[in-house]
Amino acid sequence: MDAYFIPIVLTGGFTGIAIGLLGVFIVGMRMPFIGSCISHAAMVGAVYASLWNLNPTAGALLLSAGTSAAAAFLPPSRKSLDANTGQAAGLAFMMGLVFLAVGLEQGSRNEMLSLLWGNVLFADWKTAGLTGALMVLLVGFTALFNQELKSILFSHSLAAATGPYTKTIYFFFLLLCGVILAVTLKAVGGLLIFSLLVCPAAAAYQICRGYRAVVLTSMLFGLLSTTLGFWISYAVNLPTGACTVLVSAFLFAASSFFSFYRNRE
Amino acid sequence: MNPSVVLSDILVRRGVHAILQIDQLTLAAGSFTGLIGPNGAGKTTFLKLCCGLIRPNRGTVFFDNQRISDSPFWRIPHYRKSIGYIPQQAEYNAHLPFTLREVTAMGRRSLKPLFSRLNRTDYERTDFWLEEMGLYERRNQTFRSLSGGQQQKALIARAMAGEPRLLLLDEPGANLDPSWKIQLREILDRLYCTYSITVLLISHELDLIGDSCERMILLNQGRIAAEGPRREVLQSPFALQWFGQRPATEGKG
Asked: How many Å apart are CA A239 and CA A229, to the nearest integer?
């Protein structure tokens, strides 16, 4: 393989593993819109920073971390609306802001559009290093707070009623989620992150038994989605983001099929 | 008897509506209290107040003589280690593919310091409680593959694995058939007699409240309508009016 592709493959792989792992919690807690809401908040930060000639990554970090913190301090029990409905409304608001920014842009819209769709082909060694470091940080965090996160997944209120530091750990988890989604925005794109968050984890939940198996399988499916997606796009000259999404959706469909037939037997 | 939970001058509001108002109430340590009342009476709010999940708009909650209603968040974890909580079905994700052993072992988490992992002793205690509930053979099955009654037993095993001093149960008999309710009642009676824990059981079905329950609280519209020995509460005017609308049983299944 050409040396040019090594940081690209590494960035894709690290992103797939990290978002696959995040998906375990996002899907398990039945709040897929929160991940999408945070990733779109990152996109809003990035496009407005780009519009005002500021650093897009800093803008993305600021808004996604802010959204994560707000979500952590508004647990489902405190909201008058169903959590998913509230998050979907937040997502719609963020998308409105993004398209407003695209409309306001007077010059070339290429950079903004690349934030929407993402392009892993622009990844360099610095991006690969940063993504790898964040992936290690996330894996370390989930390993360190394995029991706490598992309990939160099973029941947020049960974990809060009987266990220490639930709210604090949940807050830091969402904050980390915001940072990772902001940093991986350029590689995967705000619109495609949603499928990477949902499909690998949803596929793993269907075919695995036990928390550890779900976590490892979801990370593997995330890795497969990005690397296979990249390889297919390279081989047949198609958009990388779209191929990534299609691979992750295929994994989900295959897992559903497998689970359906296993349960029938 | 020493007080376990004391509620004093409590007011909990949702918007402008008062959903719970209690002047003074004590749950004695080592007692078994049944909290009954119609839907919307404030039973779950009462229970969440006892375990610190919600804070009152006014008043104070004490647990083992410590104020918990207005404790700073870094002091709250200490008393939570003493609580075993079994929530309503809507509050937990039964669809996840966690094994029964994993779910039960979660109960040990409250006993462990931050950053520590479960060790062999924790898993031995987990297996002990699975054995006690008659679920040891199914320990590697997923929680979601169990029946409703088995899931309730697993949640009791989870709560007991944490070695609680106060066990809070929120409608554990909901959606269970009569034979499971009898089993559940016998388990609760056995746990109470054997381990001398304080039990607060919420139910709007008397079938589930066994002979060990010596005291009852009857809530209606957020206020205590009757409180005291079981027989007296069941003969109170509101109880007779409430039971008049449905078949009354005396907890014998």
From this structure: 9
Sign of the Cα torsion B208, B211, B212, B213 reads positive
Measured CB to CB, residues of chain A less than 8 Å from chain B are 28-30, 77, 144, 146-148, 150-151, 153-155, 157-158, 160-165, 167-168, 205, 208-211, 213-214
Q: In what order do the strands lie in the sheet with B58-63?
A: B17-28, B3-14, B58-63, B66-67
Domain A3-198 CATH (choose: 1.10.10.10, 1.10.3470.10, 1.10.3080.10, 3.10.20.30)? 1.10.3470.10
Interface test with A, best of B63, B68, B80, B116 (most A CBs within 10 A): B80
Class for the domain spanning B1-82+166-177+200-253: alpha beta
The whole-angstrom separation of Cα A11 and Cα A225 is: 13
pLDDT tens figures, B1-36: 555 889 999 999 988 888 999 999 999 888 999 999
Of A28, A153, A155, which has the smallest distance from its Cβ to B87's Cβ? A155
pLDDT single digits (tens) B140-174: 999 988 988 889 999 999 999 999 989 999 888 87
Kindly report the nearest CA distance between residue A202 and chain B, in angstroms. Answer: 11
Closest CB to B80: pick one of A77, A161, A214.
Answer: A161
Contacts of B99 in chain A (CB under 8 A): 209-210
How many angstroms separate the first and last alpha carbons of chain B? 30
Q: What does the domain layout of chain A look like in residue ranges? A: 3-198
**Residues B117, A148: C-beta atoms closer than 8 Å:** no
Query: Which residues in chain B have their CB less than 8 angstroms from residue A210's CB?
Result: 97-99, 102
CB spacing of A209 vs B142 below 8 angstroms: yes
The full DSSP string for A193-214 is: HHHHHHHHHHHHHHH--SHHHH
Q: Measure the CA–CA gap between A52 and B94, rounded to whole angstroms.
A: 47
Q: Using CA atoms, how far apart are residues B121 and B58, in angstroms rounded to an integer?
A: 42
**Cα–Cα nearest to A184, from A98, A118, A112, A94:** A118
pLDDT tens digits, residue range A181-225? 888 877 777 667 888 889 999 999 999 999 999 999 999 999 999
Instruction: Give the residue carrying structure tokens 């007011």.
Output: B11
C-beta atoms of A214 and B97 within 8 A: yes
Does ipTM top 0.85? Answer: no
Domain boundaries, chain B: 1-82+166-177+200-253
Task: Please name the residue that has the structure tokens 């590697």.
Answer: B140
Q: How far apart are CA B174 and CA A48, in angstroms?
A: 51
The DSSP code sequence of A58-114 is HHHHHHHHHHHHHHHHS-GGG-SS-HHHHHHHHHHHHHHHHHHHHHH--S--HHHHH
